[in-house]
Each structure stands twice: as C-alpha cells, then as structure tokens.
C-alpha cells in the first residue's frame, strides 16, 4: 500500500496581527492530501493554532492555542492541545491544558514523545498597573507586562497532555520600544541529541540553552547567547550533520550562524547575512505592522546545503548556500508568492518548499533545485483563511 503524505495547516481563528478582518471561528487545523490538495480533515476551528509539532510516529499532533483568554476568560492564558491522527490522516481532539502563560507561540516534542515544550510569548502592548513602593519610601504606579516563559508538559501513553511540570520565566528587555520592553520567547528547539532545549527570546536579544532532565521533567540553563542589540532572535534551525545552528533576527532582517557544542550546550557566533536586497525600502504605511520588514521563519534543507528565510513586509524568501564552516552565501531573494510569509516548511522528500502567506491566505508551493538551491514557484496553492504554520506527515 502506498503511503499518503498529509499537509497540516494551522490557522488563527482570531485577529492577533497581520491579517485584515479574518472570519471568526475559522482557525484550528486543516489536513490536506499533499498530492491533490483535497481537504481531508479539519478540527477545533476556535483554536488559534500558532504552532504545531508532529510526533515522530505520526500518530499525534500537538498545537499551541495562541491566546490569553482560554475558556473565554480574559487573562486566563493560552493552551496546549493534543490531537490523535488516524490511518487516513484525519484528526480527533484529545485534550487541552493550560500553557501556564500568555500567547503560546511555538511548540516542539522529543522523538520518544515524552514531553512537549512550548514558548509563551506574552503580549507586548497590554499592561496592568500595580502600586509599588519606591526606594524613597513613597508610592507610585508601575506598569507590568505579561511574562515570557518556557513550559514543559508530560505526554501520556495515550498521546494526551499532562499539566505543565516545569516553567522557566524569562526576564529582561532590550533597546527597541514596544517589541523589546520585556521578554518575548518566540521559539523552542531541541538540538539533534535532544539533550538540550534552545529558546530564542526576541524581547531580550538572547538565545537560552537548557539541559533537559527527562527523568524528573526539569530544565537547567547552561548557556545564554547574546545576539545583536535590537535584532530580535526569532526561530532556530540546526544543520542536519554539522554542529551548527542558524537563527533569524526578526527586527533587523538578518540571519546568523553559530557553532554548538553538544557536550556543553555552549554556542559561538560565526557568520551574519542580510535577508533583503541592498535597495530594499520600507513601505510608507504607518498603519501596517509589517511596513518595515520582519523576518519570520527559517528552514535548513535536509541535504544541509541550503538555508531559506522568509521576510514579512518585503514578502520574499531569501536562499543561501551553506558551507561546513558556518558561512552563508546568498543565492537569491524571490517573491513569496503572496503577502506576509509567516511560515515555511519542506515536504518530507525535501523537493518542495511550502510558503504560508498569512495575509493573502495562501499556501504557495515552490520546487527546490537540488544543485543550485534555487526556488521555482509552481503556481500551485491552497487557499486558507489566516494560515500561520505548516507541518507534514506520512500515513
């Protein structure tokens, strides 16, 4: 029996950012046949699926419910949801637990399906006011933001999630107004050994490295890598064969390479590349959050030869040839095929790169040239309201 490749698309059911007048209740996860683009399944349309992770065995999918009003109560935080996948690729809801924070935006799971790890981004605009006593003994009002945090969840034998067993609250700030008033972890990533969990904190310009204790369900920080001030590190991707990782900076349209020591978790900066052309100019539209370009996602090709980064605002994909020493050589910068490419991912064979253009509501497919790494728009697309992420699995 031939195996069927399934595309899973996560969507927001509420207007968080970057999309005009989305239809309420049109979020959740939609599953498509990768060959025909036929809709196979759709579940939980009221869930703001900010990120998904597919279990290695393909039997379960885990997703963040990116909100802070879980259960309809504002301030109740976000959620982490678990789904079972049947032989046809159809999804069924298992359970949802509190993310123990606000706006969980990223999730990953280990290959043995023991734990799920999530990043709680928090809101950079909404604040609460508290009365505090000053050093002079007087009293004043002080603004407090949502906490940014990393959360760890046990996975049960039936694939459902247990409550949060470990939480690391991140503190600090950096130099940019609004986006960096406080910590905003935007992704979590396991290293190839799965002994370490990395977190890109775009609010503090840091990449945190934690040693994972799978026996007790705990995290211990072993390294904190400083990045360029005002850069906003967002997502992380490891090289498939070399002790190297790559991280895109949201706020200054750059991508960086680092060495990674799998024995200690220590990192060292190697190279920097720009993701837009030399003649790039921001849009003259103060009402558009993406008038000034922001990078969104990055992926390393399974061959280890190429790296791809998506640009929101410039609405493009930047491609790089990778060298074993961590250097990145620009190949090309081409149109993403739509507007606001929030997420990118390869099919299982690595032959196609799918681009999730959030604002235009399309998933656009590009073929990948094995020799040059260049992308070609195939003019094939899936239309989805407010899509934000994409994963693949085989059934």
Automatic annotation (TrEMBL):
InterPro entries in UniProt: Cycloisomerase_2, Haem_d1_sf, Lactonase_7-beta_prop, WD40/YVTN_repeat-like_dom_sf
One Pfam family of this chain: Lactonase
GO molecular-function term, one example from the UniProt record: 6-phosphogluconolactonase activity
Sequence similarity: Belongs to the cycloisomerase 2 family.
Name by which UniProt lists this protein: 6-phosphogluconolactonase
Lineage of the species this protein comes from: Bacteria, Bacillati, Bacillota, Bacilli, Lactobacillales
């Amino acid at each position: 029996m031939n195996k069927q490749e399934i595309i899973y698309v996560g969507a927001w059911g509420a207007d968080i950012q970057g999309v005009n007048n989305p239809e309420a209740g049109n979020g959740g996860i939609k599953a498509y046949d990768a060959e025909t683009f036929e809709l196979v399944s759709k579940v939980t349309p009221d869930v703001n699926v900010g990120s998904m992770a597919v279990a290695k065995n393909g039997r379960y999918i885990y997703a963040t419910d990116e909100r802070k009003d879980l259960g309809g109560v504002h301030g109740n935080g976000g959620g982490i949801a678990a789904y079972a996948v049947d032989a046809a690729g159809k999804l069924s809801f298992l359970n949802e637990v509190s993310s123990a924070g606000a706006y969980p935006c990223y999730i990953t799971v280990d290959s043995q399906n023991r734990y799920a790890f999530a990043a709680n981004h928090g809101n950079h605009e909404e604040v609460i006011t508290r009365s505090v006593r000053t050093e002079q003994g007087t009293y004043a009002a002080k603004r407090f933001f949502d906490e940014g945090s990393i959360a760890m969840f046990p996975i049960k034998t039936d694939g459902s999630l247990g409550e949060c067993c470990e939480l690391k609250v991140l503190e600090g700030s950096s130099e940019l107004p609004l986006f960096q008033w406080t910590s905003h972890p935007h992704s979590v990533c396991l290293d190839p050994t799965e002994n370490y969990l990395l977190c890109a904190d775009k609010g503090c310009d840091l990449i945190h490295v934690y040693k994972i204790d799978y026996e007790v369900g705990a995290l211990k920080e072993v390294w904190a890598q400083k990045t360029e001030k005002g850069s906003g590190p967002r997502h992380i991707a490891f090289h498939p064969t070399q002790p190297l990782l790559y991280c895109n900076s949201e706020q200054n349209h750059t991508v960086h390479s680092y060495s990674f020591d799998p024995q200690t978790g220590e990192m060292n900066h190697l190279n920097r590349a720009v993701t837009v052309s030399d003649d790039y100019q921001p849009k003259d539209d103060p009402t558009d959050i993406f008038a000034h370009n922001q990078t969104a996602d990055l992926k390393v090709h399974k061959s280890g030869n190429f790296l791809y980064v998506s640009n929101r605002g410039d609405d493009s994909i930047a491609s790089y040839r990778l060298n074993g020493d961590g250097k990145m050589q620009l190949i090309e910068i081409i149109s993403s095929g739509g507007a606001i490419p929030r997420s990118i991912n390869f099919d299982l064979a690595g032959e196609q790169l799918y681009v999730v253009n959030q604002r235009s509501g399309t998933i656009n497919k590009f073929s990948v040239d094995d020799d040059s790494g260049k992308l070609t728009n195939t003019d094939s697309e899936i239309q989805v309201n407010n899509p934000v992420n994409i994963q693949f699995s085989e059934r």
